[in-house]
Amino acid sequence: MQAGSPDVEIPAAHTIDWLASAKDALCGIRLLDAAYREVATHYGIGGSVWSKKVHKAMRTEIFGAVQEHRKVVHPLFPLLCPSRPLHRRLASAGKAAFLMQRFRCKRPCLRLTLERVSAFGSEVEEVVRNTPGPMLFSKRDAATLNYFLQYPRGTMTGWRLRDDSPRLRGFAILNQRIEEGVKCGRIVDCFIDSRDPALWHAAFTELSQRLTEGGVDIIRSYSSTPWVAAALRDSGFHPVREAEVTLRDPQRLVPRGIPWMLSMMEGDHAIL
């Protein structure tokens, strides 16, 4: 985890998933306790009712929230879900058509150009270094991003974002997967060296266009800051659900009261 600058790093771990025996009610707590001894600062996103009870017992705090957003590309996508009754699929298709009309993409007032990359390099550190603080975010470097591009299914793609200068302004990772017969696009990560919603709007518009060209039916993305949420709305996305962000930070290493940039890159949200 980084606190607004590549020079300020906080050792932290993300509790992605854990499984405990139903016969041993304390097994989950012992698992987490072992993890906490390795790294004191842990955070999590969402979770089951049971996991939330365990985290509360381990003295975690609610630190914020992540909002999931969805953009309808093809409103008839619910008809592709064979596991659902026909009348439910028809009702969902009608709702999707309504959402597509209500949440239309506005024309961006700025322009960004996307460049496809097979691997990231030093440009990642350049963007991170130019990011205005204070702000919390998971560590982003070329090695981490390239790890995602090596996803075995080969569906992850990497992108650089440039303005008309053509100055480098950010980077992004996209993914596509099939969910119950529906082709879903995901903005796994988008990181820009600005908090200007107009610039983020331009980025999400271009990234959505690339996914649309790939034949997706819907697009998903996350927001945890006001400027990203505003940009997603202007790009034709609508809010779907919210998940709590929990934090266990007994040493108080994480600064309070500053934005926390979270994306689908966190944990396994990029692929599941």
Report on this model:
With 272 residues, the protein is an alpha+beta fold. The chain has a domain at 68-240: Gcn5-related N-acetyltransferase (GNAT) (Aminopeptidase, 3-Layer(aba) Sandwich). 29% of the residues lie in helices and 28% in strands. The chain has a 9-stranded mixed β-sheet, with helices on both faces. The protein has a 3-stranded mixed β-sheet with strand order 1-6-12, with no helix packed on it. Strand 8 and strand 9 (182-192) form a beta hairpin. It is globular. The model has no long low-confidence stretch (mean pLDDT 87).
Describe the secondary structure blueprint for this structure:
Elements: E1 2-3, E2 13-14, H1 27-38, E3 42-45, H2 49-57, E4 61-72, H3 86-102, E5 113-117, H4 123-129, E6 136-137, H5 142-149, E7 157-162, E8 168-179, E9 182-192, H6 197-213, E10 218-223, H7 226-234, E11 238-248, E12 260-261
Parallel strand pairs: 2-3, 6-12, 9-10
Antiparallel strand pairs: 1-6, 3-11, 4-10, 4-11, 5-7, 7-8, 8-9
Brief synopsis:
This protein has 272 residues and is an alpha+beta fold. It has helices at 27-38, 49-57, 86-102, 123-129, 142-149, 197-213, 226-234; strands at 2-3, 13-14, 42-45, 61-72, 113-117, 136-137, 157-162, 168-179, 182-192, 218-223, 238-248, 260-261.
